[in-house]
Write a structure and sequence with these properties.
This protein is of the alpha/beta class. The chain has 9 helices and 9 strands. Helices cover about 35% and strands about 25% of the residues.
């Protein structure tokens, strides 16, 4: 398949890391670029926990955008430390970094990310996101002058990842900064992650949307069954929580919450995979799993 693309002399290929503090819109930007949902999105910070590559192929080039967990200043638990390691490791072995900042807002966590980027050996583009939330666009010029120096960045872009404003131009600027090369991935491949991983993430998204106030970070999902038979894809997943009380909340009275989660996840998964899905969910307690290096690795959070 890769022989069918990238034959032009001006074809470009490269890796681009999307970096920023939690909840700044990194996953929303990746989904907007790809034109489909591969990275889960909720209003809760630190929803993204693992690195995920989204692959965009056009006649002019192939760009591998690497979505990362938000880098945060406080990393007290094993899972938080893991997410910081994953995000900062993504600085390496890429051709370009997109540093996402919320337009009009500069926080201590943004400063922490900016300092981490000072040691990066590749160009860094500053991307001000959520410009749709800033009524006075002229104030953005003052915001930029106050907080950033042109010489620190390969370019400064203003976008709204949510509605797509400025994203096409961002993609053009990204592509122009990548080396001439043949593609690495097939033209129809849109992510480096497995279907099992995507399934677990879409289930976790539905859990986070429904339980974001009660169980913000105590949930993780493991796929135990993933089997196709005829026109039906059967997925079985275990939802791990840290306390017995959390298990009861996740299940809900007479199983109501778990049924809502299953229904929402099935709709998203059928759209993603394009096939009929039978989904089974179980809830189990794994005490303090998010603060155990051994357990987070068992549940798929590895640096490898």
């Amino acid at each position: 398949m890769t022989d069918e693309i990238g034959l032009q002399e001006d074809f470009r290929f490269g890796y681009v890391s999307i970096i920023g503090r939690p909840n700044v819109g990194k996953s929303t930007l990746l989904n907007q670029i790809l034109g489909q949902k591969v990275s889960i999105v909720t209003a809760k910070p630190q929803t993204t926990r693992q690195k995920l590559a989204g692959i965009k192929t056009t006649p002019k080039g192939q760009v591998v955008y690497v979505d990362t967990p938000g880098i945060h200043h406080s990393a007290k638990r094993a899972l938080n430390r893991y997410m910081n390691r994953v995000a900062q490791a993504s600085f390496r072995d890429v051709d370009l970094v997109l540093f996402l900042v919320e337009a009009g807002s500069w926080s201590r966590q943004d400063e922490f990310v900016a300092k981490a980027l000072q040691s990066v050996d590749v160009p860094v583009m500053l991307v001000l996101n959520k410009i749709d939330l800033v009524p006075d666009k002229e104030s953005l010029l003052t915001f930029i002058d106050k907080n950033f120096r042109d010489e620190d960045y390969a370019g400064i872009m203003l976008i709204s990842a949510k509605n797509g404003s400025g994203v096409d131009e961002l993609e053009k600027q990204v592509l122009s900064r990548l080396p001439f090369s043949r593609p690495f991935y097939d033209a129809d491949q849109f992510t480096d992650r497995s279907e099992r991983f995507l399934a677990s993430e879409m289930i976790r998204e539905q859990l986070t949307l429904r339980l974001h106030q009660e169980l913000p970070y105590a949930l993780t999902v493991q796929i135990e069954e993933f089997k196709r038979a005829g026109n039906l894809l059967t997925i079985g997943a275990i939802i791990y929580v840290e306390r017995e009380s959390q298990k009861q909340i996740t299940i809900g009275k007479n199983g109501a919450v778990l049924k809502q989660v299953g229904s929402g996840a099935r709709i998203v998964l059928e759209e993603l995979f394009g096939e009929k899905i039978f989904l089974r969910l179980w809830v189990k307690v794994s005490k303090d799993w998010s603060d155990s290096d051994k357990l987070i690795e068992r549940y798929g959070y590895t640096d490898r």
